[in-house]
Amino acid sequence: MSFLITGGTGFVGQYCIQALKKLGRDQICLVRKKNSATDLGNQIEVDLTDRLATLKVLRSLKPEYIIHLAGDRQLRKEDLDNNLEFDTNFVMARNLLESSLDNSELKLFLSLGTCDEYGLAEPPFVESQIEMPNSQYGFGKFSFTNLIREKKQNAGFPGLVLRPSVIYGPRQQNDMFLPALINSLLRDEKFSMTDGNQTRDYIFVEDVVAAILKTLTLKNIPTTPIFNLGSGCSVTIKELAIKVSNIIGGDRRNLLGFGEKSHLPNALMKYQVNIQKASTMLNWRPQTLINDGLKLTIDYIKKSLK
Questions:
Q1: What is the Cα–Cα distance from 281 to 221, expressed in whole angstroms?
Q2: pTM metric for this prediction
Q3: What pLDDT score does 151 carry?
Q4: In the chain, where the domains are located
Q5: Are the C-beta atoms of 235 and 200 separated by less than 8 Å?
Q6: I need a labelling partner for 142 at 20 to 30 A (CA). Which of 2, 80, 81, 83 fits?
Q7: HEC profile for 72-89?
Q8: What is the pLDDT of residues 92-140, one digit of tens each?
Q9: Cα dist from 101 to 6, 183, 224, 254, whole Å
Q10: Euclidean distance between CA atoms 241 and 215, whole angstroms
């Protein structure tokens, strides 16, 4: 089996590469710039926004499995302008897919989407419902999911999308809510936030990678090639923040500044994910309870601060 991975230096990518190595799988990582500090194995530099450069690399490699995890984190903006040509997440994914269409060796093209694709749709989110993305990040991911659906229906392309809810765990960048919260409380610093009444479904990063590995043994990709991933349980952000403060201990709860920030104009208040399809067809269930995952994440950040 030959594996091609994008986003290997990213949060999920690092865990995915480790898991494949444990299984004895060799992989090639497409990177913007080679990174000697990260154990990625064989690295090839390519700008995925460059269509011709991407096509050249894909035609030379002809991988059997493509795991597309790369993304532009700067596009997690809340405004929605619907201009896909300036959406680097969509452009990279489209170039990668179109460069794979004539690869007769390809068995699976796996793309990591997001439950943000559902947007304003009524929760719990189910793969069969109509998506209503309300952010540029969600819209770009949703547009690529539609492209995969189209190529699968019209050309039998072996594309599949995993839609995780909110991923968390050790090694995540500090500009995400949970590691930012943990860092502040560990430093005994005040953490300003909204009232925390919005709900979210948090899934541990290793559970996401376990689902990725499950797709590699999938014999038949379903007509609707989408699988939701989540814990199956939602929690309010306020409850989550209190959990974190209780695990860290001391008087950290007093550092939580509930209501000191306003909700963004189009912030989603209800967020719940149905994972029955992944459970049935992939034989996958999340294994990490939220308290256990939070403890692992807190311990990792605590060590990094020493």
A1: 10
A2: 0.95
A3: 97
A4: 3-166+203-230+273-287
A5: yes
A6: 2
A7: CHHHCCCCCCCCHHHCHH
A8: 999 999 999 999 999 999 999 999 999 999 999 999 999 999 888 899 9
A9: 17, 44, 19, 55
A10: 33
Count other Cβ atoms within 10 Å, centred on residue 180.
15
The SS3 of residue 112 is: strand
User: What is the C-alpha separation between 65 and 74, in angstroms, rounded?
Assistant: 27
Q: Which two tokens stand for residue 302?
A: 């605590």
Q: Which residues pair with 28 in a beta bridge?
A: 4, 42
Closest CA to 70 of 52, 54, 93: 93
Q: Which amino acid is at 73?
A: R
| Per-residue pLDDT tens digits for 239-280 | 999 999 999 999 999 999 999 999 988 889 999 999 999 999
Residues linked to residue 235 through DSSP beta bridges, in sequence order: 200
Helical pair 11-22 and 205-215, crossing angle rounded to 10 deg: 50
Looking at domain 3-166+203-230+273-287, its CATH class is alpha beta
